[in-house]
Amino acid sequence: MDFNMKKLASDAGIFFTRAVQFTEEKFGQAEKTELDAHFENLLARADSTKSWTERILRQTEVLLQPNPSARVEEFLYEKLDRKVPSRVTNGELLAQYMAEAAGELGATTPYGKTLLKVSEAEKRLGAAERDFIHTASVSFLTPLRNFLEGDWKTISKERRLLQNRRLDLDACKARLKKAKAAEAKATTVPDFQETRPRNYILSASASATLEDTSCPLPRAEWKEKQPGGWRPPCFFLLPLSPSVTQARGCLSLPEDRKLWNDEVDKAEQELRVAQTEFDRQAEVTRLLLEGISSTHVNHLRCLHEFVKSQTTYYAQCYRHMLDLQKQLGRFPGTFVGTTEPTSPPLSTTSPTTAAATMPVVPTVASLATPGEAPLCLEEVAPPASGTRKARVLYDYEAADSSELALLADELITVYSLPGMDPDWLIGERGNKKGKVPVTYLELLS
């Protein structure tokens, strides 16, 4: 590998200079160019977007995959650009265990038959969960990762360049300020005269000789030490630079003033170049930061897709569990009714609560329990009072003759019976009558 030592040393020097300058700015010892308030608001908004996007992304990953080991494994496969191996869901694994247990304990026994039915339901639940995880990953997690790994990295890179341009601009301002101060000092007229030539100093050897001759030895000793005799010292002069001239307080010649004028002109030129580069970089960074609004719009669309996929998943789970309950032929709860004529609005109560507060007729025979004859809906008469209108929210296909098929947005008459499952009501539409699920209805007051 070819190393450019000069470039490496130059970059190290620039890095050290900027570090010193940045430290001085923190302590208030150096001038700092401030950004406008709108730009600062854009920076704060971008930082907040990045921070919350990371949190939402991590928590969504936990929701979709609660197992931390599995998440680490998927992360490694992703970084290695390898396909993540297919993994069974918890529901599918439970279905497998139940099916194996039914085979070993006896598939013809009541317990074995029930295990097989629950196993099939859990298998369908696991498949629905797999589809939900895949859909949520594609429609929600992938756009969030693309923002953090793509757009945000570009924004961070341009912000670092803007920071470097600002430090260069402040350094140029400081150099120009010092050059103007030195120029002003060089143009001042001194109130003293100097005996030696201006803007020159004695060489080091001449200065040492002068110090020796300032206190000369006796002539006899000089003859002993210097056989050739004593000779006067020889001096020569060295020119001073403008900076040394100012430091020693010597008189400044017109040439020196011209040198300082050139230094000021050079500093002004560097300042103009640095200001132009800073303005250009600030405009590029501003455009990227203003693009955060488009990122929010995209994330909003992805959030709607995530909610849609989650709604579909839970609706599938509810349908599968209803089918399982029908197959098992059992109802989990006991209906508890009330004779109050009205019930709270549906918006403030759950479907189960709404069903529980429906008026009932104590004289009507209850629904058949397991092992008894099924309910004959033709013999069930609606109560004289207490029926309610309901609007159908979704299409519903009747599973058997005891249920009533529903179409979305149609109005039907519903009422409850004592001992009936709170998740179901009796619905009437014209001459047709049957059980309808409460979750598919909006009860009207």
Automatic annotation (TrEMBL):
- UniProt keyword Cytoplasm, yes or no: yes
**Cleaved signal peptide residues:** none
Q: Where is the SH3 domain?
A: 385-445
Q: Which UniProt keywords apply?
A: Coiled coil, Cytoplasm, SH3 domain
Q: Which domain of life is it from?
A: Eukaryota
Which InterPro entries would you find in this protein's record? Answer: AH/BAR_dom_sf (IPR027267), BAR_dom (IPR004148), Endophilin_B2_SH3 (IPR035640), Endophilin_SH3RF (IPR050384), SH3-like_dom_sf (IPR036028), SH3_domain (IPR001452)
Coiled coil segments of this chain: 257-284
PROSITE patterns this protein is in? Answer: BAR, SH3
One Pfam family of this protein, by short name? SH3_9
Using the UniProt record, give the first listed, main subcellular location.
cytoplasm
The cellular location(s) given in this protein's UniProt record come to:
Cytoplasm
Q: Tell me one GO biological process term.
A: membrane organization
A Gene Ontology cellular-component term: membrane
* Residue span, BAR domain: 24-337
Q: How does it assemble?
A: Homodimer, and heterodimer with SH3GLB1.
Family statement: Belongs to the endophilin family.
Q: What is this protein called?
A: Endophilin-B2
**Which gene is annotated as encoding this protein in its UniProt record?**
Sh3glb2
